[in-house]
Amino acid sequence: WDGPGAFGGASGPVIHNLATGLIEARSDAPLTEWNAFATLNNEGVFRKTSSGDKTMRLNVNNRGRFEALAGSLLIQATRFNNHGEVKLNGGVTLTLAGGGTNSGAFTLQDTARLVFAAGGLHHLRQGATFSGPGMVELGGPSTEARLVVDGEVSMLRLTVALGKLSGAGTLTVTETMHWTGGSVEMLGGTLVIAPGAVLAMDGAGQKTLAGTLQNGGTIIWEGTGAFQGASGPVIHNLATGLIEARSDAPLTQWSGPATLNNEGVFRKVHGLGTKALEAQFVNSGRLELLAGTLQVRGNFTNSTDGTVHFALGGPAGGSDYGVLAVTGRAQLDGAIEVALTNGFRPALSNLFQVITANPRIGTFSTERGLLLGEGLKLTPLYAASSVSLLVTNAPAETPLVLTLERAGEGLRLSWQPALTNVTVLSTEDLAAGTWSEFVRSATNWLLIAPTNELRFFRVRQP
User: How high is the pLDDT of residue 141?
Assistant: First the structure.
């Protein structure tokens, strides 16, 4: 297919490329339609080799190989159905503006772009695969682009700028996702950010979430655009996951509050303002408040395994240290942890209000980083609607004494004071400073089998 002349289809013609057939488009001459779209049934090879921009107004049913090796190709019709293989060379853009059903393979070389644009519903069914480092994009020039995930599908790279990603299936992103606008509304489905993958949310565009967002990788949340929850979405941050909030753009609700289940790390950094989350926040991982105020417009629960970490860099809440402000109930358990920053040294009687709630229920069962040295400590003060840290005098420390003595054929290791529920660590190289867990003990002693190795022990209480 060569030369500059246009190729016009009239009255819905059909081009049937058999399994032995090859159609090679060597020019950018368009394929137009007069009164009905043409249809290309491809069982062989369709190959675009021209270096410019080519537009084809026809429906495509691909069960063979559809190759775009150079330039760009725009398919404008009512459907592009891929049940074979689509291959895009590096630097090539294929734009699909008509919807369709896909259960075949897409191979995208580096810098290739596959754009699902407006014009219909683009369905990804079970069996659809995406390979290669090229980019899959949802958007194009219109907000009406729709990509529907019906099965279990994975891809390396995805950009959502406009339109809607929906469906009751599971879409897994294994490398990078860039979300600048549009919506992810997978009601009954799940968007998965795999371990090691990164979701970057930025820009001024509003982003809407419905269904479940499961993160095992890293979510970088910045930009000024609001993040809106619809129909009670769930954000599940797995133990391997990190959500880093780098701006104060809010999470709002449209038709039901979100639920944020954090098993990994949720970290608020940068900015001295207030970041609002209209959500029910359940923390069984680490909530790190490094700057500003995190406002939970709902209930907050810190479970037995959860840790709330505050960076203390000065006397003013929200500017010098992070604050957790809960408009609903704050149910506390687990650990509170404090780290001094900016060279700040609290003085005796300094008071830091770190949590507000309505009401506050329960207390932290574990305290870390509250001993400040130089005879001072932070003492938690629990009020009906707040938790504050008061700088008080620390009690004199009692040294821990370990004793090792013979006991029959083995050795008996004991320690005073009689701390219980401790972890005994050991190392064979004291200079290296690498300690490993030897055993956990519910008493203040344990028996050790005889050994010819030189070994050192230490005791740590959680």
Answer: 59
